[in-house]
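2024-03-11 09:14:02 DEBUG pipeline.ingest accepted 1 chain
2024-03-11 09:14:02 DEBUG pipeline.ingest length=426
2024-03-11 09:14:03 DEBUG pipeline.predict start
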Amino acid sequence: MADRPTHGTSVPGQAEARRSSRLARLIAVFGPGLVVMLADTDVGSVITAGQSGVQWGYRLLLLQFVLIPILYMVQELTVRLGVFTGRGHGELIRDTFGPFWAWVSAAGLGIATGGALLTEFSGVAGVGELYGLPRFVSLPLAAVGLLAIVLTGSYRRVERVAIAVGLFELAFFFVAWAAHPDLQAMVGGALDIPFADKGYLYLAAANIGAVVMPWMVFYQQSAVADKRLRPEHFAAARLDTAVGAVITQLVMASVLIACAATIGRDNPGASLDSVGAMSQALTPFLGKTMGNLLFGAGVLGAGMVAAIVVSLAFAWGLGEVTGYRRSLEYHPLEARWFYGVYAICVVAGAGLVAVWPDLVALNVAVQVMNAFMLPLVVGFLIALSVRALPRAHRLRGWYLWLLVAVATVTCALGVFGGLSGVGLFG
């Protein structure tokens, strides 16, 4: 009997220890999903969401929420593949389908990387110009910062810095709140969908393309492998992805709401093809100082974290196809090609935007291009999940067919909207 009190008090202690252990594991695993999702709301996506709100009010708002489960389902496959194979996306395609298809995937990644980097550095330059900083100053500073983050750190340090920078995007929540949107108009507009309008379909395609991009798939799967996540981490890694998917689409919705409630209400014909144009258009509603500060912080966070993720995704992906050493755990002198490709991406992106400033106008077009590449990206993911995974974790049954159906509809809408918008279809 004397032993009972001691035994009774140890049970809560053990339960507390188990909870602490689970929390510690969750914190340790969190990162790849959140980083890639913060990067997903990059400068091009912000411009696309803003233009959607200006031209169509709240009519594209519902799409932002519909895309949350789609985004999660796609990126969850990268987690599944990374955790249960321990290999990156390009390497897995090469080993499963051969070098030809690996190079096809790498070519798609290269095209998406080029377009993305132009938009990220255009956004960084635009934020600098809000404060009178010329491009030949802001872009080199950004490039040096991006090189320093990766060349002097381990994977864990790079991940932490990327998350810290990306969280500046949360400023868009305050921008949406400060715009004082009308709830009734928001609900009514979200349910009023002009399916037959080509301009609407084009922006819908851009929003779809802004959600799932080739470099996201390559980055998250490679990051999971580089972080050495194992099957026991799978549940936490999926939660990491789910949280990120919700945050990124809430950020997109916030930008759309802010622009719809202000510029879209008073000047629906405005064309916001740059960070400066969006900030200036919001000035009458938020004030110049607050508008520049909040909008600038959000765009800078989006551009910098996306530049890190995009450049690393290409360095990882190319290494997985060619076979050179590729890991943030290597010293730069031990993985010269990996770090060299990353550095070339950063320097080339910053340099091109510095000498060709009008590239920012490509923002929406880049997202539509991503929509055209969706069938290739999602097709590889599903095929790998059926063939490359250990048998116990392969996609099968109702979830496989649900995923195929969702992917088919999403890809079809993206491609159809893009073709209709440019007048090639519909």
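2024-03-11 09:14:41 DEBUG pipeline.report The chain has one domain: 31-421.
2024-03-11 09:14:41 DEBUG pipeline.predict end
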